[in-house]
């Protein structure tokens, strides 16, 4: 059970190598000061720092931030609990690109679409077998 009844739909992550803290803030729905705090609390989160101490996050770090956000804001974990859950290693796949996740609303829309396609195919197959155009072996 989640803390919020309406899931937050986050924007897709663009195909870029590095993201600024402002971009990550927009992509993850978290303010920049929270991201800086999370860097202190989660050892897995280590953005590249360039001149002027500017932070640049990579794609896998954006996915990690989204997971941290989900654990804290949607599942109700404490910082300590989220840290423990992430350190178990079960939450993040080995391949960061495999971490594409659908929100509950997106998953529901996809299932609805697939059911309607299945129904159309069933109707077409039924009509074709009735007219003798399709033989099922």
3D structure, described in words:
The protein has helices at 21-28, 32-41, 59-74, 79-87, 104-130; strands at residues 19-20, 48-50, 54-57. The relative contact order is 0.12. The protein is elongated and about 75 Å long. Strands 1-3-2 form a 3-stranded antiparallel sheet. By secondary structure, it is mainly alpha-helical. A hairpin with a 3-residue loop joins β2 and β3.
Summarize the structure.
The chain has 137 residues and is mainly alpha-helical.
- What is the helix/strand order? EHHEEHHH
Residue fraction in strands: 5-15%
Please give the count of helices.
5
What's the Cα radius of gyration? 21 Å
Reading side by side through the largest sheet, how are the strands ordered? Answer: 1-3-2
**Computed structural class:** mainly alpha
Shape: elongated
> Helix content range of the residues, please?
40-55%
Mean pLDDT: 83
Roughly how many Å apart are the termini?
46 Å
List low-confidence stretches: 91-95
Number of strands: 3
The biggest beta sheet reads: 3 strands, antiparallel
What is the strand and helix layout of this fold?
Elements: E1 19-20, H1 21-28, H2 32-41, E2 48-50, E3 54-57, H3 59-74, H4 79-87, H5 104-130
Antiparallel strand pairs: 1-3, 2-3
Give structural attributes.
137 residues, mainly alpha, three-stranded antiparallel sheet, 5 helices, 3 strands
């Amino acid at each position: 059970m989640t803390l919020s009844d309406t899931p937050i739909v986050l924007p897709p992550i663009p195909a870029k190598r590095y993201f600024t803290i402002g971009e990550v803030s927009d992509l993850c729905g978290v303010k920049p000061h929270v991201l800086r705090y999370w860097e202190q609390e989660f050892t897995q989160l280590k953005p590249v720092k360039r001149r002027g101490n500017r932070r640049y996050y990579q794609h896998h770090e954006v996915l990690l931030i989204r997971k941290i956000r989900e654990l804290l804001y949607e599942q109700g974990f404490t910082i300590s609990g989220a840290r423990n859950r992430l350190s178990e290693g079960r939450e993040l796949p080995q391949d960061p690109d495999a971490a594409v996740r659908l929100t509950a609303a997106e998953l529901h829309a996809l299932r609805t679409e697939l059911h309607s396609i299945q129904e159309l195919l069933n109707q077409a197959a039924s009509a074709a077998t009735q007219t003798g155009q399709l033989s099922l072996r």
